[in-house]
Design brief:
Low-confidence stretches: none
CATH class of the largest domain: Alpha Beta
Radius of gyration: 20 Å
Largest sheet: 7 strands, mixed
Keywords: Metal-binding, Oxidoreductase, Zinc
Order of helices and strands: EEEHEEEHEEEHHEHEHEHEHEHEHEHE
Strand content: 25-35%
Protein name: Galactitol-1-phosphate 5-dehydrogenase
Structural class: alpha/beta
Distance between the termini: 25 Å
CATH superfamily of the largest domain: Medium-chain alcohol dehydrogenases, catalytic domain
Number of domains: 2
Number of helices: 11
Mean pLDDT: 95
Number of strands: 17
Cofactor: Zn(2+)
CATH architecture of the largest domain: Alpha-Beta Complex
Organism: Sporolactobacillus shoreicorticis
Helix content: 25-40%
InterPro entries: ADH-like_C, ADH-like_N, ADH_Zn_CS, ER, GroES-like_sf, NAD(P)-bd_dom_sf, Zn_alcohol_dh
Amino acid sequence: MKAAVLHERNKIKFEDVVLPEVKADEVKIKVMACGICGSDTHKMQTRWNYPLPAVMGHEFSGVIVEKGENVGHLSDGERVVAIPFIPCGHCEYCERGDYSLCEAYTMIGSVQYGGFAEYAVLPAKNVLSIGNLDFENAAMIEPSAVALHSVLNAAPKIGDQAAVFGIGTIGMLVIEWLKLAGVKDIIAIDIAPEKLIEAKKMGCNYTINSKKEAMQERVMEITHGKGVDLVFECAGSRFTQEQSLLIPKKKGKVAYVGIAYSDVTLHEKAFENIFRRELTVKGCWNSYTAPFPGRAWTATIAMLQQKRLNLSAYISHRFSLQETQQAFDMMINREQPFNKVMIIPTIEVHES
């Protein structure tokens, strides 16, 4: 099959690869859409810790074209979404259903060939049926599940006020879930004007450009000096990771969703807020709970089927499989504003 193969740091070649044969408990799917995750761009530039060559891509959907002899609950031609996380099933955390914390997991799209390819082979337990959902919405289920997992961890209450740092794909999806959860006011915080315009269109009550405004003072003005009930840090920046501790109210919650790529140093005020305001600081990692893959996945599919979510609205660019390197270059070099960038193996020419 054809695949976009990573050979070295930020060097992808469109070439033939041999896909492993389908085992008794596996399925082979034809990939119809695969999103590029922000973590993909970081890993391939800075710290790729897996064997090379590799086929990345862990946010994908497709159609089953072959199944192993022991697979009875899925059918040829069934439309599915891939679940890229493969827990060991034996460690302490797997045994209690905290699959996201598995101590010996593997990932499709790093250790195993992923979705930047014409086909993918994966365990049958690692796909979910999507019914009649379109493939682009389905390829967004994984990032939506990550966002929902963080919201479920923070446990918002109807009428809460929340602030979201970083209005990329995950930040936007967190906003979607907060709205569905009944949060009253959502404050979107970013340094990109176009992101804040999108946040306003999504229904955020307030937006703050923290590069041009005094962010903390503005939040306190909005909340009458108290601070917000919930903070979601989705930017993965050492600046916003500290700022997230400056704006919660007493007994407030801070959910860390963005990955840290450098050391984070806290000033005295930020650190003191943790204990003086008795903040709850929550780490939110992956999206997997019991029964596997968990509520964040099944709820996303249900909301899509009920048309209460439209995840494909967050796709800004579409590239063919041959153009995967071009897609990464556009993102890494910030050649133009983008949101979710999608690889569509079935198209031959660039579409945007």
